[in-house]
């Protein structure tokens, strides 16, 4: 029952992450309200999992990862290389996905970040003219909506975690 509630909280984060990605793409802003909502969903989900397993390891690992990401990205915000919303979002995502999903999230974030950078630098790869013009505008401004790859990686990681949890695992062959 606790596992189902935890998965529900993670599932509720998916539309919120999609909203964050869209707003970051269109306005280059990530609101504190959305990040705090993600934090609450993540902490609730982690607490339910910790209560079920009897171990707080996953929550501790997630908190350490979030703190390390904040400390590592804060200087980049000071140098105006990333936005404050991106730093806050990256700090909260480990608490949302849990320590067990950090590796999957990291790989997906790398893939989506590289794809975003490639699209921003080469907008001619895109089919739609209006979309291409918008991305060229982002390139001229020197802005990359980093919340988009963060959100996409988190959505895919949550989806993968839900899939792995709900799929029946075959027993050992006897």
What does the secondary structure layout of this molecule look like, with pairings?
Layout: H1 2-27, H2 32-53, H3 57-78, H4 84-97, H5 102-121, H6 129-141, H7 147-166
Helix pairs in contact: 1-2, 1-7, 2-4, 3-4, 4-7, 5-7
Describe this entry's structure for a reader.
The chain is mainly α and 174 residues long. The chain is built from 7 helices and no strands. It is globular and about 60 Å long.
In short:
The protein is mainly α. It has helices at residues 2-27, 32-53, 57-78, 84-97, 102-121, 129-141, 147-166. The protein is 79% helix and 0% strand.
Q: Which tags fit this structure?
A:
mainly alpha, 7 helices, 174 residues
> How far is the N terminus from the C terminus?
30 Å
Rg calculated over all Cα atoms: 17 Å
Backbone structural class: mainly alpha
User: How many beta-strand elements?
Assistant: 0
Helices and strands, in N-to-C order? HHHHHHH
- Number of continuous helical runs: 7
The share of residues in extended strands comes to under 5%
